[in-house]
Specification:
The structure is a single chain. The protein is an alpha/beta fold. It folds into 2 domains: 93 residues, MurE/MurF, N-terminal domain (Udp-n-acetylmuramoylalanyl-d-glutamate--2,6- Diaminopimelate Ligase, Chain: A, domain 1, 3-Layer(aba) Sandwich); 215 residues, UDP N-Acetylglucosamine Acyltransferase, domain 1 (3 Solenoid). Helix content is 17%, strand content 30%. Strands 8-11-14-17-20-25-28-31-34-37-39-40 form a 12-stranded mixed beta sheet. The longest helix has 18 residues. The radius of gyration is 27 Å and the shape is flat.
């Protein structure tokens, strides 16, 4: 699909310097731009590429002043980075704007759905499912019985959504994610053998949540596992039964959160963090990558280490750890001198 500079300027409310009929059909980095591509300049260290880029159109900040001739058409906007992000989102919406029901696929007669449904080949939608407007279900996805999904939700290929799950508006569930599988509930007897504890709760995902590829969110034993509004989950995260994650918290890949832990709002959790069960993590907490959390955490704490402790204390301790052989040797020499003098 092609767009002219005039069309793009209208979308971004920008000003054109150059050819308003210049056409683009792809996006590119400024240093890799070629004819027919659109790029942007926001970081001053890339300014030199503006004068050599082959891109047909370049988005720049309004206050940018050209110091030598350019071959690219400029679109001047208030914030070039945000404007380019807006175009990326616009482009993505067009690219993913599928509709209709492909065959072979299965959709139960009891399903209720609004306009704009896309159901890819080999997808399955079970009994009593409710789907909002503009829901996209890509091939090989599975949606179990009694699931409710809001408006403008995208469920990519291979996603599995178990029964009774509730998903809000404007959510994205990436390929291979599993939502609503049984929590890890087993009870040992006197022989050490395990009996399954039925997991009869569900998962609730509120509005504007992104769930990364191959991430798993377990259903609650009783009640709900809850992912609040605006949460962003990276790939390959494990969220156990009855966990609750507060609004606008972001969690990086390979983090594991054990059962019944509550995480507050606006937290940032790095990759490969492990959090034990039944804890309370406050608001605005920051946890560095590969940390192990085994205690309750207050609001605004910054943690690192395993077991994790204060970030500043960790850095101080790490300096001492690196110098440990030297410190031990100094102690040995001091003891030797004391012994000689004694």
């Amino acid at each position: 699909m092609k767009f002219t500079a005039a069309q793009i300027a209208e979308i971004l409310e920008g000003e054109i310097e150059g050819n308003p009929e210049a056409e683009v059909s792809e996006l590119a980095k400024i240093e890799e731009g070629s004819e027919g591509s659109l790029t942007f300049l926001s970081n001053p260290k890339y300014t030199s590429y503006l004068y050599t880029t082959g891109a047909s159109i370049t988005i720049v900040n309004k206050d940018f002043e050209v110091e030598q001739p350019v071959n690219t058409t400029l679109i001047k906007v208030k914030d070039a980075y945000k404007a380019f992000s807006t175009l990326l989102e616009y482009y993505n919406q067009i690219k993913l704007n599928k509709s209709g029901i492909e065959q072979p696929s299965y959709i139960s007669d009891s399903v209720k759905h609004e306009e704009g449904l896309y159901l890819g080949a080999f997808a399955y939608i079970g009994e009593n499912v409710k789907l909002g407007k503009n829901v996209k279900v890509y091939p090989n996805a599975y949606i179990g019985d009694n699931v409710t999904i809001g408006n403008d939700v995208t469920i990519f290929a291979g996603v599995k959504i178990y029964s009774e799950t509730i998903i809000g508006n404007n959510c994205v569930i990436h390929s291979g994610a599993i939502v609503g599988a049984d929590g890890f509930g087993f009870s040992p007897d006197e022989k050490g053998e395990y009996s399954k504890v039925p997991q009869i709760g569900n998962v609730i995902i509120e509005d504007n949540v992104d769930v990364g590829a191959a991430t798993t969110i377990d259903r609650a034993t009783l009640g709900s596992t809850i992912i609040r509004k605006g949460v962003k989950l990276d790939n390959q995260i494990q969220i156990a039964h009855n966990v609750e994650i507060g609004e606008n918290t972001a969690i990086a890949a390979q983090t594991g959160i054990a059962g019944s832990t509550k995480i507050g709002k606006n937290c940032l959790i790095g990759g490969q963090v492990g959090i034990v069960g039944h804890l309370s993590i406050g608001d605005r907490v920051k946890i560095q990558a590969q940390s192990g959390i085994g205690r309750n955490v207050k609001d605004d704490e910054i943690l690192q280490g395993s077991p994790a402790f204060g970030y500043n204390d960790f850095n101080k301790s790490f300096i001492h750890f690196k110098n440990l052989p030297k410190i031990v040797n100094n102690i040995y020499q001091l003891e030797k001198k004391l012994g000689e003098n004694g």
